[in-house]
Amino acid sequence: MEVTRILAEIDAQIAKLQQARALLSGQGPASAVKKAVGRPRKTAVAPATKKAAGKRALSPEARKRIADAQKRRWAERRKATA
């Protein structure tokens, strides 16, 4: 019975197409839940563990260490190009 199998496959394809049409036209069950597009909104309450946003301060010793290290890098670079 080849004909009954072909008819069954055609009916299955018709059902899939009808379901796809319903989803696209907004009549399907998936249209009830709309997903927001884009970035999520910020929450009004900041987490308690985070420090308040602001400028970070370096100690004078740390600032001097960084400056000395950068001066050494510059000196090595000048020495390599010369």
Outline = elongated
Major sheet description: none
Give the N-terminus to C-terminus distance in angstroms.
Answer: 90 Å
Number of strands: 0
Give the % helix: 55-70%
Q: What is the radius of gyration?
A: 33 Å
Core attributes:
82 residues; mainly alpha; 2 helices; 56% helix; elongated
What does this structure look like?
- With 82 residues, the chain is an all-alpha fold.
- The chain has a domain at 1-29.
- 56% of the residues lie in helices and 0% in strands.
- It has 2 helices and no strands.
- It has helices at 2-25, 60-81.
- It is elongated, with a radius of gyration of 33 Å.
- The mean pLDDT is 83.
Topology:
Elements: H1 2-25, H2 60-81
In short:
It is built from two helices and no strands. It is mainly α and 82 residues long. The model has no long low-confidence stretch (mean pLDDT 83).
